[in-house]
Amino acid sequence: MGKGEKTVFIRWMAMAIDRVSLFSARAVGGILMAMMILTCGDIFSRSFLRRSIVGTLEIESNYFMVAVVFLPLAYGMISKQGHIRVEILLSRLPLRLQMGLEMLGLILSLCVFSLVVWFGVAGAWRSWQTGETMVNVTLPMWPGRVLVAMGGVLLCLQIIVRMGHLVKGFFRS
After folding, report:
1. Looking at the 3D structure of the chain, how many domains does it have?
2. How much of the chain exceeds pLDDT 90, in percent?
3. Measured between alpha carbons, how far is 44 from 38 in angstroms, rounded to an integer?
């Protein structure tokens, strides 16, 4: 594979990662809608039928909330650097030093979220093997843990893409 082909492939991979990140963030909208419908249904059921919908709390906390927290993390990297940044001091530093500090932050983030992925996969695997289920309903626990790992993998990929852009910019400046 020649240098031009590698560049095209890397650009294609970065675009694919961006698209998957955007899709996962948009899917959270549907998940929030399902969560709202289930919550409203539970409130209606408790108010008028004097019974709760069994498993509402478990489903919302083990599936929906996990998805809402972890799936859009990667999108934050591409939405104009959507994660929190404190630039009061950073903006006063030379450009190369800013880039170096950002790279350090990305490396640390990659290490932390690699652990999130590792433990998410390990937890999902253990949950799958043991047949672990929720307390009030017999739904498996492993899908929620897979969502943690999926969100972590997407974020790690976005971090790697951002690191590539920084390295490229560092040598151009």
Report:
1. 1
2. 66
3. 10
